[in-house]
Amino acid sequence: MASPRSPAASASSAGSRHSFEQDRDRPQTLEDLVNHFVAAKRSLNSQTVLWRANEIVTTARELLEENAILAAKNASIRNIVDQQVDTLEAVRRGVDVVEAEVQAEFKQLLHDVDTSFSGLNSMLAVLRETPIEAALQPPGTPQKHLYDFIDSTTVSNLEGTLRACIDRYNEALATLGDSNDAFDTSLDNLHSSIENVPMTPATTSNPSPIPSLYHDLEGHAKEAAQAFQGLVQHYDLCVTALRHTEGGSAAATQATGDAPSQSGDEFAAPPEPMSEGERQEMLTVLQKDAHEVEEVVSEIRERGSEITFLLNQIENHINHLRNEASALSSILQMIAQITAEVRSHILTSRSFHVSWLDDTRPTLLNGIEEWENQREFYERFDLAYAELLVEVSSRRRRHEKAKRKAEEAQKELDKLFTEDERAREQFALAQGDFLPLDIWPELRDAPRQYEVKAVATDVQGDEQVGEQEGAKGHIVQSIPQLGRNVVERALTRVKRRM
């Protein structure tokens, strides 16, 4: 037969070749020709395979075009998805950077606040533990300490301000944390969905199998068509042989059961003239092809099955691409939704940063400065009290020195008075009887007496041992006498703070 054979058909023909060689030289009877004709006509039923193959080729060609479109579309969408995911992750990292920078500075400032507050508390503890010397207070005054002379409301008010500021920061941080958690959940869901997108097994190194499958499918369809063309030619040869055989047309019609109207087209025309040699040659070819009819029909059916199998593979790949396209479309919708939510996440991050710059940071810095200022002020207060004790001791020492000088001066004045008084008495005894009283009226006067005493001031506070009324009636208080150990401790504190 004129059609090419598949390897399977060639292999199956080996078993029938021996029987053909046995019958090759046997004369072909009318019955043989009719049988060949009937078999040839039956073989033409394989045309349904060709019709189906034609439909499959058309479908496969459409799928080949769809494959190119889907592959390009999916690749493009994957690139878009990768870019969008990179952008979303960049935004998320940016939010983390803002939070991390603020958190780092907040922790440092909070440490500085704690350090300053600890220093202030240490100083306040010193004030609480430093008693006021009883000698400096009026009699009967309850024991007081340096802490009793300060306004602690400033400290407590500032502490409350800083605590409220830290609470506001923690609330803003918690809000940012909720926003970031929602952002992370969205990104996690997005990554999970991307991972679940079916990956079509086609890469640069492993391209789409559909072109190759289509090429094979089209090749099988062509081979089947050529094989069927061989069957048609064999059928025509059977008709020609019957037309050149006496009674052949009638026998063929009777064998196939065709009505004359149905088979008339095949045997209506008179046969063309043919020599006996040509007829024998034709019968030889006919006999040879008759043995291959079943093989060719099997080959056509096998190719039809292969075509169907290849179409299934193409459809499977296309379905995979369609599923991938559908999944990627869902990914784009997810990205669109997350992108719409990103604005809210960015605004939350910006609000957190603005709150830090405008509220938390300046409040903490002001608190640190205020703690330091108060600590320095109370250190100066403590130092001033220590210096006060030293000053009291110095005043007492100067007072004692002045008192001694006054006593020495008083003794000298009293001595001079006594000397003057005695000298006047001796002069009166020696010359008094000779001098008239009117020669100098003050001749008989007593000597002037001087007295050293403390001078009263307009305000309460300067030195006087004991209490006495001054020239203007003000009471001058005595200078306290401090213990030696009290003064030494005060000097030590003064030197240590210098």
Provide structural commentary.
The protein is mainly α. Helix content is 76%, strand content 0%. The chain has helices spanning 7-23, 30-43, 47-129, 153-195, 210-243, 248-256, 260-267, 276-290, 293-431, 484-497.
Kindly, what is the distance between the CA atoms of the first and last residues, rounded to a whole number of angstroms?
Answer: 125 Å
Q: Total number of β-strand segments?
A: 0
Cα gyration radius (Å): 65 Å
Order of helices and strands: HHHHHHHHHH
Question: What is the overall silhouette?
Answer: rod-shaped
What is the number of helical segments per DSSP (H or I, 4+ residues)? 10
Task: Kindly estimate the percentage of residues that lie in beta strands according to DSSP.
Answer: under 5%
Q: Helix content range of the residues, please?
A: over 70%
Structural class: mainly alpha
| Main sheet summary | none
Q: State the low-pLDDT regions, or none.
A: 2-22, 259-264, 459-475
On the 0 to 100 scale, the average pLDDT is: 84
Could you name the key traits of this structure?
rod-shaped; 10 helices; 76% helix; 498 residues; single chain
Summary of the model, kept short:
With 498 residues, the protein is an all-alpha fold. Among the domains are: 7-306; 456-498, no CATH class.
